[in-house]
Design a protein that fits this description.
By secondary structure, the chain is α/β, with parallel strands linked by helices. It folds into 2 domains: about 5-145, NAD(P)-binding Rossmann-like Domain (Rossmann fold, 3-Layer(aba) Sandwich), CATH 3.40.50.720; about 150-315, Lactate dehydrogenase/glycoside hydrolase, family 4, C-terminal (L-2-Hydroxyisocaproate Dehydrogenase, Chain A, domain 2, Alpha-Beta Complex), CATH 3.90.110.10. It is about 45% helix and about 20% strand. It contains 9 helices and 16 strands. The protein has helices at about 15-30, 40-55, 95-115, 125-135, 150-165, 195-205, 210-230, 235-250, 295-315, and strands at about 5-15, 35-40, 65, 75-80, 120, 145, 170, 175, 185, 190, 195, 255, 260-265, 270-275, 280, 285-290. The chain has a 6-stranded parallel sheet with strand order 3-2-1-4-5-6. Helix 4 links the parallel strand 5 and strand 6 (about 145). Helix 3 packs parallel to helix 4, helix 4 (about 125-135) crosses helix 9 (about 295-315) and helix 5 (about 150-165) packs across helix 7. The longest helix has 23 residues, at about 210-230. It is globular and about 55 Å long. The chain starts with 5 loop residues before the first strand and ends with a helix. About 45% of the residues are buried.
Length: about 325
């Protein structure tokens, strides 16, 4: 007997640092009544569930439990964090072959028990693995997407906010493309509460725009590497980004975020998962937005898409 997925029930596959941090973020959000943890190491999943459950007297009521793939039947959102973590001397792309193999074992198990949930991919390289999940699952394109450059965009806003002495929530700027070394900041539409970024920088006394953009974009790209070098892994930021995406789905917010989604015709691209601004609501990715890009940004986005296609080709997709 089939179960109807419930958006208040979420599953996290993979209980490493990213998975457990995501579970904690979702528990404190109060979004979900049921949080299911699945890991190849069942004892690890059980331990995480027990530890998280001890937080419940301080948060909203919920059931937090470890389980198996059979327990996915009524989950509305399934978050995949499973995979081999990026090492200090690796790029996200270096993980590609190993994590593609992980997905070949994980995704068919998901589909066996649930064909109607949203698949939210967080594992890296997220754009490539989102495409792999889409192909392996057979799910509609609006129900498979990755965390993309949501975190990268937040990092850019934070750095700009600190630089300009303004609340980063008042900074509006996207990082798009691959969640990785070929990503790009969309400077042409960046603004501070409607004030064009260059004008706001002039107002604050920053006039070397070209040099500053290069440095800021490099700082965003290197953020993860800097964290990995210091503490071995990044997990709090991506946990918060994942929670933010889930909020827009569960609450049907129609928020616009640069998730990794299937692009078909947008920006002149086709048949690739790449991070671009998208409308997120209770139907998943409800629209992909073609924001204005200048010639240099467009060229970089195409190059980023070609990088992802080459990576997919290298693993037979």
């Amino acid at each position: 007997m089939e179960c109807t997925p419930d958006l208040r029930k979420v599953a996290i596959i993979g209980c490493g640092m990213v998975g457990s941090s995501t579970a904690f973020a979702l528990m404190t959000s109060g979004l979900f009544t049921d949080i299911l943890l699945i890991d190849v190491n069942m004892k690890k999943a059980e331990g995480e569930a027990m530890d998280l459950s001890h937080c419940l007297p301080f948060t909203s009521p919920a059931e937090i439990r470890a389980g198996s793939y059979a327990d996915l039947a009524d989950c509305g959102i399934i978050i995949i964090t499973a995979g081999v973590a990026q090492k200090p001397d690796e790029t996200r792309m270096d993980c590609i072959k190993k994590n593609a193999e992980v997905f070949k074992s994980v995704v068919p198990q998901i589909v066996k028990y649930n064909s109607d949930a949203f698949l939210l991919v967080v594992s890296n390289p997220v754009d490539v693995l989102s495409y792999v999940a889409y192909k392996l699952s057979g799910y509609p394109k609006n129900r498979v997407f990755g965390s993309g450059t949501v975190l990268d965009s937040a990092r850019l806003r934070l750095i700009l906010g600190k630089r300009l002495c303004v609340d980063p929530r008042s900074v509006h700027a996207f990082v798009i493309g691959e969640h990785g070394d070929s990503e790009l900041a969309v400077w042409s539409s960046a603004n501070v509460s409607g004030i064009e970024l260059g004008r706001y920088c002039d107002h604050k006394g920053f006039t070397r725009h070209a040099d500053n953009k290069i440095k800021l974009e490099r700082d965003v790209k290197n953020s993860a590497y800097e964290i990995i070098d210091r503490k071995g892994a990044t997990y709090y930021g991506i946990a918060a980004a994942t929670k933010r995406i889930c909020e827009s789905i569960v609450r049907d917010e129609h928020s616009i975020m640069p998730v990794s989604t299937l692009v078909s015709g947008h920006y002149g691209l086709d048949d690739v998962f790449i991070s671009v601004p998208s409308l997120i609501g209770s139907n998943g990715v409800e629209d992909v937005l073609d924001i204005g890009l200048d010639a240099d940004e467009y060229e970089k986005l195409v190059a980023s898409a070609n990088t992802l296609k080459a990576a997919l080709k290298s693993i037979g997709f």
